[in-house]
Design a protein that fits this description.
CATH class of the largest domain: Alpha Beta
Structural class: alpha/beta
Bound molecules: D-[(amino)carbonyl]phenylalanine
CATH superfamily of the largest domain: Carbon-nitrogen hydrolase
Distance between the termini: 51 Å
Number of domains: 2
Order of helices and strands: EHEHHEEEHEEHEHEEEEEEHHH
């Protein structure tokens, strides 16, 4: 059996600090129009897709910081995106900085949602692996203050079943640094995920480890291909890229199959739609053989080591 959906990875080029949300949303609607002419069922947008990557700056004034957050979704500025997607009958995922009230206090998360063709939210995720640092580190060419501006996500990695107009697919999400941690994929693999949507903003230069810079593009694809294969799932990775406020970010948006192969990828660091027809049943042969978790995984062995919490040194 095959359950094919046509997917578009909607890579965004640079967004400068002065760029309005309205201007960015207009770019995203243009990508949705391209997706419509390519027969897309689903489009994935990057992490923090509405603004420049603001964690690159040290800010102390909370009202200034909060100008980069969304208090409601959709809002007046983002409504044109939701309206266009609904009119075109296209589902989409969107990353944004979420400011909300929960448990009687203000909460701030690096969030991503999947919105169905009917405009209803299918799934919501809040970034768990927050890279970088919490305090100002002036030695850096640029800051990476996600730990300062966001809380660690509190929704784990849920897998949600989409409606029939998306082949009743099992969809999961992660954000950026999450893709470097195998646990992110495995938690969803254990739920039978068939497609993971992930947005990222990844600087070319990593100040604490400049020797890694030359491998940025390689590591980007390595982790998504491995995560896809080892969990028998599609992985759609979408960059915000190019030079934002002097900071260069990698592109490399791609669609990786459960086989581990990249089936389509971006060739620019601009706004670019990467399209592939994805059979959500393609992972079944791996889930039923090599990665049949029920038959081949040994969770008791893993748990024993994890619960020891210490290093396992040879006698
Ligand atoms: N960005 C980067 C990422 O994980 C980073 C942080 C850059 C980690 C370079 C390692 C090397 O892709 C975000 N936003 O998580």
């Amino acid at each position: 059996m095959s359950r094919v959906i046509t997917v578009g990875a909607a890579q965004l080029g640079a967004i400068q600090r002065a760029d309005s949300r309205a201007r960015v949303v207009a770019r995203m609607v243009d990508l949705l129009k391209q997706a419509r002419s390519n027969g897309c069922d689903l489009v994935a947008f990057p992490e923090l897709a509405l603004t420049t990557f603001f964690p690159r700056w040290f800010m102390e004034d909370q009202s200034e910081i909060d100008t980069f957050f969304e208090r409601e979704m959709p809002s007046n500025e983002t409504a044109p995106l939701f309206n266009a997607a609904h009119e075109f009958g296209i589902a989409f995922s969107l990353g944004f900085a979420e400011l909300t009230g929960e448990e009687g206090r203000t909460r701030r998360f690096n969030t991503q949602i999947i919105v169905g063709k009917d405009g209803k939210i299918i799934g919501k995720y809040r970034k768990i692996h927050l890279p970088g640092h919490r305090e100002h580190e002036p030695w850096r060419a640029f800051q990476h203050l996600e730990k300062r501006y966001f809380e660690v996500g509190n929704l784990s990695w849920p897998v949600n079943r989409a409606p029939a107009d998306l082949q009743s697919g099992l969809f999961g999400q992660m954000i950026c640094n999450d893709r470097r941690w195998p646990e992110s994929y495995r938690v969803m693999g254990l739920q039978g995920v068939e497609m993971i949507l992930l947005g990222y903003n990844t600087p070319v230069h990593n100040p604490p480890a400049p020797s890694h810079d030359r491998l940025g593009d390689f590591h980007n694809h390595l982790v998504m291909q491995a995560g896809a294969y080892q969990n028998a799932t599609w992985v759609v990775g979408v960059a915000k890229c190019g030079v934002e406020e002097g900071c260069e970010m990698i592109g490399g948006s791609c669609i990786a199959a459960p086989t581990g192969e990249i089936v389509a990828q971006a060739i620019t660091r601009e706004d670019e739609l990467v399209v592939a027809r994805c059979d959500l049943d393609l992972g079944q042969s791996y889930k039923n053989s090599t990665f049949n978790f029920a038959r081949h995984r040994e969770p008791d062995q893993y748990r024993m080591i994890v619960e020891r919490k210490g290093a396992i040194l040879p006698e």
